[in-house]
What we know:
Chain A is an alpha/beta fold. Chain A is built from 22 helices and 12 strands.
Amino acid sequence: MSEQNNGMSRRTVLKGAAVGGLGIAAGSTLLTSCGSKDAGPMKWGGRGLEESSVQWHEAVAASFEEATGTKVTLNMNDSNAFQNNLSQYLQGTPDDGFDWQAGYRMQFYADQGLLEDVSSVWDEIGGQFAESYKIASTAADGKQYFLPTSWYPWGLHYRKSTMTELGLDPENIATWDDFMKMLEATKKKGLIGYALGDKGGWEAMGTFDILNARINGYQFHVDLLAGREKWTDAKVAEVFKYFEMMIPYMNTNVLDISWEGMRDLLLQKKCGAMMMGSWFSGDFKTLSQADYDDLWIVPFPEINPEHGRDTIDAPIDGLCVAANGENPEGGKALVQWLASKEGMQARLDSGNTFTSANNGQDTSSYDPFQKQQLAVMGEAKYITQFLDRDTRQDFANPVVAPAIQNFLRNPKDINKILESVQEQWDALPAL
Amino acid sequence: MTTTATNTPVRRRRSFSRKDRLTLSAFVGIPTAFHILLVWVPAIGTIGLSFTFWTGIRISDIKWAGFQNYNNIFTGTPVFWDAIWHNIIWLLWFGLIATPLGILLAYQIDRKIRGHRFYESAFFVPVVLSLAVTGIIWNFMLQPGGFVQGIMGRDISNPISIYGNYDINTYVILGIASWRHIGYIMLLYLSGLKSVDPSLKEAAAIDGATEWQTFRKVILPTMKPVNIIIIVITVIDSLRAFDIVYMIYGSSTGWPILGILVFQNISGGGMSMKGAAYAVILFALCIGPMIAYLKQSFTEDVK
Lengths: 431, 303
């Protein structure tokens, strides 16, 4: 992909940029800033082997090479495997810059000294981000170790055509009762009302998060995940009471399928709605523009009027620089470009369906689905990351995941399950 | 070698030249060094780690934890007991059903029943596939939208729950594992049977022994070394089971077994000491059969 860029002089790069019509106003300033650092060849560890993901990574890497004349080698990884192996990856010979997540997950590796301080990048382009993003990118020592690139909402996804056929309008669901009526109507037409998969153990956390936030509010949710509230609280049992009401409208093989199974149910018009992060929309677009145009997202309906629809899981994705990489300076130059307005524009231009985390991003090029994602996130007063990013790693997947799976299997056992969750939280070693 | 050594021990020892000694110590020493470095050092390290709290990154962060990780596993982790239960079912299934079936097959094939060549190759084919590949194949076959659901006329919107159905998934997984295990045991046993002196069987037949009596009183005792190896393989394979389950469920605890718990904790970050403790428990369970196995193979070598 990048071989021909190797021997290019800066002049030809400039010419190429101009002729290629990148349309980046700040392209030349970036050129000088990166060129002066003598960044050298660098490596970028990308996550996600789905076609849509590989596609935008390649496009952005190419745009970086075109803009700076520096060669970047892109190494794409399976998303789950990458996450599982991150400790080993960072202690070995990591890529210089790599895709990662804000908040607790960044914090842990920053505390261990495995991430490179990128405060200098924040000094240069920090003005392009909201203050809350800077907080999410800052570790315990007050320095930044993360650059946000994109964020996406967790909400009810559905196909407009299916809902029109059913005579339903999910955009105007005001209450839980309306929501149940919608599920009932979908089921009556022979479709799955609420598609859910939980084979991976994390998928159903999205439903738990939103129910807890809707019923008990943001503060309780955050406190529960931080251990300041108890899982044995009647308020948590209440959440699962609502969860249980949805089970009759789910597919009968929730524990057989993972998020891919959910996506396929929606793709093949077998279900009404499903709770998922909008990141999967790229797969719709890969399949066909018509499928993508048919996809829509709305916030999960209100349950408790006290909290309305004030909270949403909207995880921030972005980049870190590995401390053990061969070229940390190059890594910084890379993440600076990727997170900058220009880099994000190149990503959006490649057809990526995420929404930019960059303040200054020109949203006029957004398609209706991206605009809707922004609207859904913009409506919420409180932003949470996601259960497995908002609590201890040795709690989310080893404890909460099997607990929710057990609940889906035997909803009647919920009190016993919650007692066990609390016991397991109490038994965790102090950090 | 044993016989020569006992006949002329003194002379043998003297006949080693300096060069011989150097060569010998290199041949023994280098593999031993590698073995200690690659097997025993990590093993002892894992055992040590299981008694600590550690994030798995900076050595200076290690804190002594005593038996707390084990205490946490035994008293505070219900999924551990699910995993032990699954390993026990696996062991019982292999020991009482799959392994005897493999032996029965080997015996029948050795008797050259009609079509024995066909059966032999049919049961042998799964053995050449690794367990991971076996898991992938069966996952494709049984998943929603897969082949089996397809011939039952089920699409992804109305599939039969298989891997997520706790009434049947255990038996489905054990069935998949047996698909390979039966052929493996058959192969081992068949090679053993081929070396049994046919005159023994003839003698038993002349004495008027029935088929079952011949098998029990003549074949089985002659096959003792093979029997022990098969028992040990059955036990160890049941305890260390991992590949098939991982291919189907990933590192989530969809169908917990010890191997998955080790992996889930070690790969997740921040829980490596608990993963190490699981590994030590698994090791403790395996070590008995392993010693029996090694002892048997050593005695055989000496013979």
